[in-house]
Amino acid sequence: MTRTIAPLPRGQRQRLAPLLALYAAEMRAVLNGAQAASPEAQAALLDSHPAAEVLLAEDDGAPVGFAILFDLPEVVFARRCGNLDDLFVRPEARGRGIARALIAAAVAEGEARGWSHLRWIVPEGDVAAIALYERIAARADWRSYVIRIDPAASL
């Protein structure tokens, strides 16, 4: 099996639609039934957003996972940092190191760009993701909070 992880350029992000549909369904379960946009609308947003970057994991040319990254200013150290906004691996492809490989690719990108750190948040209900993150990363010293501006966008 040949695995590749590479940036997915704008104009090709509709390829994510099947993975985004699976991801949204899984997150609805984790986040108590929250409704998500269509996978096509999600992919179109990723395609049009100037700061969104996508890493695509493929096994033998078939998409099996993705990571969505943002390169952000980090004012405390007057540097940049990475924000891993979303990470997903197809359920049948889990347990093969794909999530770890996506995170490693994000870290490598951060090293190349001189990021001070890579950060991400995870819903408390995402037990499998938390189990992985506890093994490969240090828990941050801060909490995450949210103010819901649009109640319909409860993801």
Condensed summary:
This protein is of the alpha+beta class and 155 residues long. It has helices spanning 17-30, 39-48, 98-113, 127-136, and strands at 3-7, 53-59, 62-74, 79-89, 115-120. The protein contains four helices and five strands; from the N terminus they run βααβββαβα.
Backbone shape: globular
**Tally of distinct domains:** 1
Total count of strands: 5
Order of helices and strands: EHHEEEHEH
Largest beta sheet, briefly?
Answer: 5 strands, mixed
**Which spans of ≥5 residues are poorly predicted at pLDDT below 50?**
none
What is the name of the CATH topology? Aminopeptidase
Can you name the CATH architecture? 3-Layer(aba) Sandwich
Give an overview of the whole structure.
The chain has 155 residues and is an alpha+beta fold. The protein has a single domain (3-134), classed as Gcn5-related N-acetyltransferase (GNAT) (Aminopeptidase), CATH 3.40.630. The chain contains 4 helices and 5 strands; from the N terminus they run βααβββαβα. It has helices at 17-30, 39-48, 98-113, 127-136; strands spanning 3-7, 53-59, 62-74, 79-89, 115-120. Strands 1-2-3-4-5 form a 5-stranded mixed sheet. Helix 1 (17-30) packs across helix 2 (39-48). The chain is globular and about 40 Å long. The termini are far apart. The mean pLDDT is 90.
Observed structural traits:
Aminopeptidase; 5-stranded mixed β-sheet; alpha+beta; 4 helices; 155 residues
